[in-house]
């Protein structure tokens, strides 16, 4: 096994293990918070984080990935990136401190002023994370990232739960954001032991910016496309509806997308090691997409069929208005779970500028679709966003395929059979539910459906013996039999 392959698999193992545990813990915290807080309280914080999240995404400015991409990184490069990030974060903090009333005026909600003021300090904290985390990822040291991420999640989650239980309302969510960022920065410094020196180079910054500017432009567009729906719903529909919509999105699509985010953290550094071998990059990309689809497609299909039972059981009846929105996002999540992988192909071939240009057109299309859907409320936004998302993915793969040497049909042939297999199982699950729902309690329907789904899915995978399934199975068996 090549060193690249070993590093990739080791990184994925740690990163995926961290992600699974993090998502389980995060889901537990979210479920308890959803029972302690109202949709409106989630919506109020969501109004501010639309803006603060964008400002935070600018702090990195794509320079963290530029450090990963560069073959020989010097101390001057790292310190230059740090001081650049710090200057941007200081500007953002000052801007938000100076204009907290603007967001409140935009939404016509005075409660937002103090929330905006408190969250502005999160920018300064985040500046201390960029370089240390780029060092971790460049080394594929996802064991350290696992420890940092898990510690931040657990402690910030506990703080939020204690405050929510004590009756602090939406301030519990604000505290969770601040504590998580602080611990990510602090633990990054502790484990990596890197601090900036008082040195700076405009030449080094210019060199890194050749890679990062297209990336930051694309990420900026991508951020607003993913959040323009929250912005418009918060302004024109209401806080409770925003809470329902944003919680549906975060509970469903974000965990699914985070699977591809996990792989992306490992995939891009691995691609940089083989950037002169496009055929290898294509092969790895298709296998990774298939592997993600093997996990995401059954989860989303099952959730689509059993949405109402699961929400009533887990979150309570006050969140049942989420059901139709969640069903739409189940469809969206199948696409988004592999959507973030596309940027790795552009970055591997150093085509971030092209990614920005294509992204600009596609983001305009997505924003237009969201604005059109807004007139039918949160369901209209969800449906229009989903349709536009699938169109964007098709165009992206058509364009990047010309760079990487494959066609859209090649991508479709690799992932669609897995989706269709799960749609077929989903129909069987729906028929089973119709048969059982008038005879037993919902909890027993869920148990029977899940057991039936797993059994049928396993039998079909064994029968058709998909190469990616067999490879994953072999890796799992080899790992489980490995001497400790």
Unreliable stretches (pLDDT < 50, length at least 5) are none
H/E order of the elements?
A: HHHHHHHHHHHHHHHHHHHH
Cα shape: globular
Q: What's the helix count?
A: 20
Largest sheet: none
Rounded radius of gyration (Å): 22 Å
Query: What is the overall pLDDT average?
Result: 83
Overall tally of domains = 2
Q: Into which percentage range does the β-strand content fall?
A: under 5%
Helix content: over 70%
Assembly state: single chain
Give the N-terminus to C-terminus distance in angstroms: 20 Å
Summing up helix and strand content along with how strands pair, one would put the structural category as mainly alpha
- According to DSSP, the number of beta strands is 0
